[in-house]
């Protein structure tokens, strides 16, 4: 009984950062159990994206080629296994998009309605939309949709205007801020509030931190390139992971930097997969489950 009360208090600690969060004692986890499979599928799909991109890029580099962006990496998957992989990626990303939307709407992670909580929940919606868009890219890689020079021309025309230049620049700066937040998560390790404590998560936490830091570096590079494109009104520099790889390759020891980044993204893929298996949803959590944060605190006392 004491252990049960302690783990419930741990869940309270997770929510205590958000002043107006609903009392978790008043919530029956079974009411939100339906959200757990969606969350698991979403994080698994996200993990698969980074596994494919980093894996294909490393293989290409070792074969004398170049690192590839998300769409190019998916297009390089051929044959029945490749098609199945891309379908799994798309389904997972759409599941992740849905998960972020319902997570925000039902406040499943108890962020509450304080200013900080509202910002966090808006961020969930944004990440949901972004990952839904990546899911569309996956479908595009199968050849069921098309995107080409017309979209690039529209972006270029938009960026030639003063409004377009400012919008793209601000979008780039916000992306940089997102990358900084990933670094903050890696340093503060606040993700431990939402991960179950077990042998793997407790002993391999350094890999999770490295993966988050690598994702932070990637997102910051992408954001910086987008912001620069906005300031220079040049749409060719505004891109995703492929553009970031191209920029890194042009630097001193470029290939080594790209390889290190790919290895880091494999770590982020692991981080996403660990979340798929062991993430704690405060409003849907079994009270007997202990978080990493609680376990670390317990070991320190």
Descriptive notes:
With 301 residues, the protein is mainly alpha-helical. It has one domain. It has helices at 2-15, 35-62, 70-75, 79-106, 115-141, 149-160, 162-188, 199-203, 205-232, 241-249, 254-278, 292-300. The longest helix has 28 residues, at 35-62. The relative contact order is 0.16. Mean pLDDT is 79; it is low at 1-6 and 8-22.
Question: In brief, what are we looking at here?
Answer:
With 301 residues, this protein is mainly α. 72% of the residues lie in helices and 0% in strands.
Report the C-alpha radius of gyration, rounded: 20 Å
- Most strands sheet: none
Rounded average pLDDT: 79
Q: Estimate nothing, just give the exact number of structural domains.
A: 1
Outline: globular
How many beta strands in the DSSP annotation?
Answer: 0
Q: Spans of 5+ residues with little confidence (pLDDT < 50)?
A: 1-6, 8-22
- The percent of residues in helical segments reads over 70%
Continuous helix count: 12
Distance between the termini: 20 Å
- Order of helix and strand elements from N to C terminus: HHHHHHHHHHHH
**What class would the helix/strand composition place it in?**
mainly alpha
Strand residues, percent: under 5%
């Amino acid at each position: 009984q004491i252990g049960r009360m302690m783990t419930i208090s741990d869940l309270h600690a997770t929510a205590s950062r958000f002043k107006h969060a609903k009392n978790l004692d008043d919530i029956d986890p079974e009411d939100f159990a339906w959200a757990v499979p969606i969350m698991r599928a979403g994080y698994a799909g996200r993990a698969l994206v980074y596994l494919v991109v980093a894996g294909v890029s490393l293989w290409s580099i070792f074969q004398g080629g170049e690192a590839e962006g998300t769409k190019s990496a998916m297009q390089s998957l051929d044959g029945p296994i490749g098609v199945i992989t891309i379908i799994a990626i798309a389904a997972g990303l759409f599941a992740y998009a849905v998960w972020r939307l319902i997570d925000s709407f039902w406040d499943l992670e108890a962020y509450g309605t304080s200013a900080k909580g509202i910002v966090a929940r808006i961020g969930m919606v944004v990440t949901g939309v972004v990952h839904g868009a990546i899911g569309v890219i996956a479908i595009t890689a199968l050849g069921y949709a098309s995107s080409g020079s017309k979209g690039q021309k529209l972006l270029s025309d938009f960026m030639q205007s003063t409004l377009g230049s400012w919008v793209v620049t601000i979008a780039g700066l916000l992306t940089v801020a997102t990358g900084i937040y990933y670094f903050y998560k890696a340093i503060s390790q606040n993700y431990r509030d939402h991960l179950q404590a077990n042998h793997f998560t407790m002993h391999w936490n350094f890999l999770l931190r490295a993966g988050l830091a690598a994702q932070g570096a990637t997102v910051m590079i992408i954001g910086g390139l987008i912001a620069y494109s906005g300031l220079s009104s040049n749409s060719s520099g505004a891109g995703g992971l492929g553009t970031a790889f191209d920029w890194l390759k042009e630097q001193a020891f470029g290939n080594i930097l790209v390889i290190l980044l790919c290895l880091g993204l494999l770590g982020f893929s692991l981080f996403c997969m660990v979340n798929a298996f062991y993430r704690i949803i405060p409003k849907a959590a079994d009270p007997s489950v202990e978080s990493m944060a609680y376990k670390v605190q317990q070991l320190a006392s």
